[in-house]
Amino acid sequence: MNNPLIQPILSILEASDQGISEFELLRQLERQAPIFDELGDDPNLKLFRKHFLIMNALYQLQSQLWQEDEVRLYISPLQIHLEAVAQIEASQSSEVEDGAEAKLAAYYLDWDEYDNTNAEDVEALLKGFYNKLFNQEDTENALKLLGIKENPTKSEIKRAYRLLVKKAHPDKGGDAKKFIKLRKAYEHLISQSYA
Fold first, then answer.
1. Are the CB atoms for 52 and 130 separated by under 8 Å?
2. Where would I find the beta strands (DSSP E) of the chain?
3. How far apart are CA 97 and CA 36, in angstroms?
4. For residue 193, is pLDDT > 90?
5. Shortest CA distance to 82 belongs to which of 11, 136, 170, 165?
6. What angle do CA 135, 141, 145 make, to 5 degrees?
């Protein structure tokens, strides 16, 4: 399948002497790629599709540029840039190798991954990410700090947070450190997607 972002990304990379982050690339493409307006209503699914289209185009470009022009496209979330063969050290790979990068390339080059991923899949990916990010001990500490029992609803979390944050808010003479701890506990519990 032809990715409509290949040409715009190539133009952006050409204009970016120092390279560009994926976030900045996304922002620039949002301003010039009308396809982004047609990616669905669910905000998480829409973001997934934007990211997928960008990564698909980057990995297609990486392969094409190396094979046709012997130019390496370096891809990472924080830095995407072109390197001529002369810039590549002998120890660096010029192509995607068998490791994590090859698996990422294979994933993003497979249009079935794009077509078959729905809003529920993206939600599960996000939950999995947050579950790894926060462990059970963090959850127990957050519950204790907010003074609520296990498996609270979102409204119970919000109610407990609002009650405690009124006293701890720095603008109302409260302790800034306590306020931050309460906010972190609140964010942690809300991210766990309680009903």
1. no
2. 71-75, 80-84
3. 31
4. no
5. 11
6. 145
Residue 182 CA to residue 29 CA, distance in Å, equals 37
Alpha carbon separation from 96 to 55, 60, 80, 110 (Å, rounded) = 14, 11, 15, 15
The pLDDT tens digits for 35-69 are: 787 888 899 999 999 999 999 999 999 999 999 98
Domains, the chain, with CATH or none: 6-125 (no CATH), 134-191 (1.10.287.110)
Summarize pLDDT for 59-104 with one digit per residue, the tens: 999 999 999 988 999 999 899 999 887 655 544 554 555 577 889 9
| pLDDT at residue 127 in the model | 83
- Which residues, in sequence order, are CB contacts of 78 under 8 Å at separation 6+? 21, 22
Q: Is 58:26 a contact under the CB 8 Å cutoff?
A: no
Rounded to the nearest 10 degrees, how much is the dihedral formed by the CA atoms of 132, 138, 143, 144?
A: 170
Query: What's the rounded Cα separation, in Å, for the pair 2 and 33?
Result: 15
User: pTM value?
Assistant: 0.64
